[in-house]
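Suppose you are handed a protein chain with no further information: no name, no annotation, nothing but its sequence. What can you learn? This example shows the usual starting point.
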Amino acid sequence: MKLQINIKDNNILLVLEAETKEKIDKISFPNERNLTEKLLVLIDNLVKRNKLEINDIKNVKVKSDMADSFTTARIAKVTANIINQIK
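A reasonable first move is to predict its three-dimensional structure. Written in structure tokens, the prediction is:
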């Protein structure tokens, strides 16, 4: 499984994909300046509702239309790096 964290137009989209790039599930929510509080919880919800565990996620990528200097983009990238490292 793969997880994409897409940040576009102040909205966050979490997309769970199979290795074949088939979209399995997604969660969308507005960026309300509370990403640190919501991101891991929503990733966990997405994983659990698809009867998976975090270790089933083989790769997490971030796509963002924001500059790297924005806190939202940095939080998403740090979260992706952490999940990618815990395997």
